[in-house]
Design a protein that fits this description.
binds calcium ion, two-stranded antiparallel ribbon, binds beta-D-ribofuranose
């Protein structure tokens, strides 16, 4: 008899956010999603936490949600309301969730789960503040988890600024500390996520299902396509955060290259830039500290996404 494939155990650290919501929905179906921690990013911590709770209610399972950092390590709070709307879920109006958070101490929860759950994957799809705080408390966290997958950074241009991707730009110091913490993380940056796009055809296919969850995602992305049309002139949006989940659950869809990365925390023009040493990688002289996802089979990924949602 064929054995069923073992699903990865995943803890998602997120700032929902449209693509965070999609990532949670995919992780719920494609992995054993053990818990969710929230961080300020796309919107305030209160909003990202409420949105995470609402998604778990839509799913209909009591996935524990633990609230985390409300500001970056340096005390700043930045958001992406011009993309995701003031509440983080522009385009949908969900009722206030009936569920409450399991705790307001995401960092302690991450550290406890790393020890309690066998082969736990951390999937970080917001600013890296919670993960950095966890590493500050327990510098050997990397040795207690199966791995870390990050949506963040870029080997090319940024989206928050010319050089910086939003999640890293929102807390560059946290990102710097996490990349130096020995996780050898999978990094899904803009160079990868901009290969995996939603468009109006995808929305039509989701609506055709006439079910609650695909309709919710279709509403989110109808809004997002309108925002993208305003901002960059195309009715398409990169499915950033789902890439980090799929890189764990379906690594065969991806190509990876080991590289060394560090983060610029200061520069007027480059604050939040991920500096990947592609030069030394090409010469075979890099001392890699991460696995950069460089290619996704977007046809297969889209099919999987539609089937799953
Ligand atoms: C990342 O920034 C956020 O706006 C998205 O949720 C994603 O995690 C893309 O740069
Ligand atoms: Ca996010």
């Amino acid at each position: 008899m064929n054995e069923l494939p073992v699903m990865a155990n995943i803890l998602i650290d997120c700032d929902p956010g449209h693509d965070d919501a999609m990532a949670i929905l995919l992780a719920e179906s494609l992995s054993n999603l053990v818990s969710i921690t929230t961080v300020a990013g796309n919107s305030s911590l209160a909003n990202t936490t409420r949105n995470a709770l609402s998604v778990t209610e839509l799913i209909g399972r009591d996935i524990p949600v633990h609230a985390g950092a409300s500001q970056a390590l340096n005390g700043e709070a930045r958001d992406a309301r011009h993309v995701h709307g003031a509440g983080g879920f522009g385009g949908v109006s969900l009722a206030e969730p009936g569920r409450a958070v399991a705790s307001e101490d995401a960092v302690t929860h991450i550290l406890a789960q790393a020890r309690a759950v066998e082969a736990l994957w951390l999937v970080a799809i917001g600013p890296l503040t919670n993960i950095a705080l966890a590493v500050r408390k327990e510098p050997d966290l990397a040795s207690h988890v199966a791995g870390l997958a990050i949506m963040g950074g870029s080997t090319g241009s940024g989206n928050a600024t010319a050089t910086a991707e939003f999640n890293i730009w929102a807390d560059p110091q946290a990102a710097k500390e996490v990349f130096a913490a020995g996780f050898d993380p999978i990094v899904c940056g803009l160079n990868l996520t901009q290969q995996f796009l939603s468009d109006d055809d995808l929305i039509s296919e989701l609506r055709a299902a006439q079910r609650t969850i695909p309709t919710f995602v279709a509403d989110l992305y109808t809004y997002m396509h309108a925002r993208m049309e305003d901002l960059i002139g195309v009715r398409q949006a990169a499915l950033h955060d789902p890439c980090a989940v799929l890189a764990v659950t379906h690594p065969d869809l991806f190509e990876f290259v080991s590289m060394h990365v560090d983060v610029e925390t200061e520069g007027d023009l480059t604050r939040g830039m991920t500096v990947f040493d592609q030069r030394r990688t090409r010469r075979g002289k890099a001392t890699p500290n991460c696995k950069v996802a460089t290619h996704i089979d977007q046809g297969a990924a889209r099919e999987l996404l539609l089937k799953t949602l």
